[in-house]
């Protein structure tokens, strides 16, 4: 019996070590630190994208970084009934990526200025959707971490030379309301609300362009607010911390995580955390702005789920 117990323990340790190693490998691909980035600045294949306010970019940015805004890589209809932050068509997205200097052999680093974490993860998600996810990483801690580590900033605008991309091989990462209705609550899929808890719980009601959203959240969805990705210093939380957050929310290991938020930005921070833990991910890009318009799209509040 002791022999069998020792074998079982050894197998358990091997399996757990394998999981840790696998997620550590994922993290090393998806996240880089300032020391590594500083050592790569002379790499001609490196494309650094600064996500932030244009005025702040002009005051100082990581040397060689190009300014990118959400409008550069998304489509928004600024009307009362318009949808915000939709993914562009493939050919249009390819053109926009090339304008940022991205080529087939580029190594892409995205960083957030100030606290623009979820806009930065939206850019990272867009790269993943475009088939460039294996060559795209997020800078841990953003520009604040870069400065804290003593690295210099530049006021010089980056080269405007365009890149060269083959036709995109986009990944099937975008889903619609019908997909969510079909999969919410089914084994192997976790629909996750990335908004602040006050919206999920129904304490506050969101809205945009004069449209008031439904109060509460998609019925059956879990809550992992976008702010959980990073700590107070904007460094990305450890694997153990992230796993504890997902476990508490009810997301099971290996689940495909389908994220949504108000308009499809904040949820990408939650999805980035899910990728760090090895989860397949998808984005309900139209998000709650779209879900609120469907009479058959069920919602509930925290009280309905038994939360205080």
TrEMBL record:
CDD domains attached to this UniProt entry: TST_Repeat_1, TST_Repeat_2
UniProt key word Repeat: yes
Keyword annotations from UniProtKB, A to Z: Repeat, Signal
Chain ranges of the Rhodanese domain: 42-155, 185-300
Keyword Membrane attached: no
Signal peptide coordinates: 1-22
The protein, known as: Rhodanese-like domain-containing protein
Organism: Tahibacter amnicola
UniProt lineage: Bacteria, Pseudomonadati, Pseudomonadota, Gammaproteobacteria, Lysobacterales
């Amino acid at each position: 019996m002791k022999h069998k117990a020792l074998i079982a323990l050894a197998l358990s340790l091997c399996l757990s070590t394998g999981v840790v190693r696998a997620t550590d490998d994922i993290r090393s691909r998806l996240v880089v630190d300032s020391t590594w980035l500083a050592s790569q600045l002379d790499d001609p294949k490196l494309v650094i994208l600064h996500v932030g306010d244009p005025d702040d970019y002009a005051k100082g940015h990581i040397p060689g970084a190009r300014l990118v805004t959400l409008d550069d890589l998304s489509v928004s209809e600024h009307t009362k009934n318009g949808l915000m932050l939709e993914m562009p068509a493939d050919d249009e997205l390819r053109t926009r990526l090339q304008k940022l200097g991205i080529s087939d052999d580029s190594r892409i680093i995205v960083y957030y200025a100030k606290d623009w974490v979820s806009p930065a993860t939206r850019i990272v998600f867009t790269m993943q959707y475009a088939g460039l996810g294996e060559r795209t990483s997020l800078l841990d801690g953003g520009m604040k971490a870069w400065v804290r580590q003593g690295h210099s900033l530049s006021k010089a605008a980056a080269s405007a030379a365009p890149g060269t991309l083959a036709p995109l091989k986009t990944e099937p990462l975008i889903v619609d309301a019908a997909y969510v209705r079909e999969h919410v609550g089914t084994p192997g899929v976790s629909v996750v609300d990335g908004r602040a808890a006050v919206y999920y719980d129904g304490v506050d009601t969101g809205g945009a362009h004069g449209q008031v959203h439904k109060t509460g959240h998609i019925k059956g969805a879990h809550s992992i607010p976008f702010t959980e990705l990073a700590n107070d210093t904007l460094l990305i939380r450890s694997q153990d911390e992230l796993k504890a957050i997902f476990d508490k929310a009810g997301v099971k290991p290996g689940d495909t995580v389908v994220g949504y938020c108000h308009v499809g930005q904040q949820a990408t921070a939650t999805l980035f955390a899910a990728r760090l833990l090895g989860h397949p991910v998808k984005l309900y890009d139209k998000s709650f702005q779209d879900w609120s318009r469907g009479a058959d799209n069920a919602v509930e509040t925290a009280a309905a789920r038994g939360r205080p």
